[in-house]
Design goal:
Elements (H helix, E strand, L loop, with lengths): L1 E5 L1 H10 L2 H13 L3 H7 L13 H8 L11 H6 L3 H20 L8 E8 L5 H5 L3 E4 L5 E6 L9 H14 L11 H19 L6 H4 L3 H12 L8 H9 L1 H6 L11 H17 L3 H5 L3 H6 L14
Parallel strand pairs: 1-2, 2-4
Antiparallel strand pairs: 3-4
Helix pairs in contact: 1-2, 6-8, 8-9, 9-14, 11-14
Length: about 300
């Protein structure tokens, strides 16, 4: 297994010192180009002229610092993610996450992995509602972390990377296509968060779970989601997974769901599944959602107890 770290801090330093007219292409070639295969899979053009001005940099700048924002003025932010110890901790989290599956006799089809951490866009509400950190790992072989760097988010980056590594492993075994339904996404997010906390401890549980209380989960979220598990079409299922506010930011129709409803539900659903079946988080990660959901029918009627 080969894990490559793309040191974004070095790229930010270069782009910050570049002439204004040089920033865009420097950023595209240094930060975006190593992920070319991901962009191809996601069908996002590498250059704007290929698709009416929308390209990888435009897409990336929604959640992250755009090239024109990378100036000496953000040096304090860059400095916060520039220590060798920070990057080593992140790499160790990725390496340990992937190796744990191998240790549990799960043969990973993908052997080459690339990961980086990017500075988040402070103006992005989707990031701030997530307490300033996030990630993406749904394309096998590619893992991203995103943060607004501070004393809260920096130590949580390793946990977010473990969460994304779990997605990365799952989608080496589970086919992702246009037929993906809400049940799969609830299961997937629940698996990822249970995996991350199994590595680092329940005190590192993300805000996408901790912001939901037992009353909301049991009496508002669960009764609605159990009826929508077969829902397909991202515009249809996103409000149930992310909640109304995040859905509306993407111009999707609200459905009266609180923040990250599907994430919180998924976390406790997978806990129920692991207790009921005695299976490990490693086995569960590569199990089809339909099979998991078939074994947790009691979850929907049983009151979930939230401790802490």
């Amino acid at each position: 297994m080969n894990i490559t770290t793309l040191r974004s801090d070095h790229i930010y330093q270069k782009v910050a010192q570049a002439l204004p007219e040089e920033k865009l292409e420097l950023f595209r070639n240094e930060m975006m180009a190593p992920f070319m295969k991901q962009w191809q899979i996601q069908q996002i053009p590498f250059r704007a002229e290929e698709a009416n001005g929308f390209d990888v940099v435009t897409f990336n700048s929604i959640m992250h610092r755009s090239p024109d924002q990378i100036t000496p003025q953000i040096s304090p932010e860059v400095e916060l993610i520039s220590s060798d110890s920070f990057w080593l901790e992140c790499e160790r989290a990725v390496r340990k996450s992937l190796h744990l599956f191998i240790e549990h006799e799960i043969n990973l089809p993908v052997s080459e992995y690339l990961f980086t951490i990017q500075l988040g866009n402070p103006g992005n509400r989707a990031l701030t509602i997530n307490e300033g950190y996030s990630g993406f790992g749904g394309i096998p072989g590619f893992i991203w972390g995103t943060l607004l760097p501070n004393e809260y988010t920096i130590p949580r980056m390793k946990v977010a990377l473990a969460h994304e590594c779990n997605h990365n492993v799952r989608y080496q075994f589970i086919q992702w296509d246009h037929t993906v339904n809400l049940g799969e996404l609830i299961v997937s997010e629940g698996l990822a968060e249970n995996f991350a906390t199994s590595m680092f401890g329940g005190e590192w549980l993300g805000p996408w779970v901790t912001k939901t209380n037992a009353e909301t989960l049991n009496w508002h979220i669960k009764p609605v989601l159990r009826e929508q598990l077969q829902l397909t079409g991202f515009d249809q299922l996103a409000p149930y997974l992310y909640g109304d506010e995040l859905a509306e930011l993407q111009n999707f129709k609200p459905v009266n769901m609180p923040y990250s409803a599907g994430y919180a539900c998924g976390y406790y659903l997978i806990q129920y599944y692991l207790r009921k079946t005695g299976r490990t988080i490693y086995e569960a990660t590569i199990t089809p959602a339909a099979q998991i959901l078939d074994e947790v029918k009691g979850f929907w009627d049983e009151e979930t107890i939230i401790s802490g």
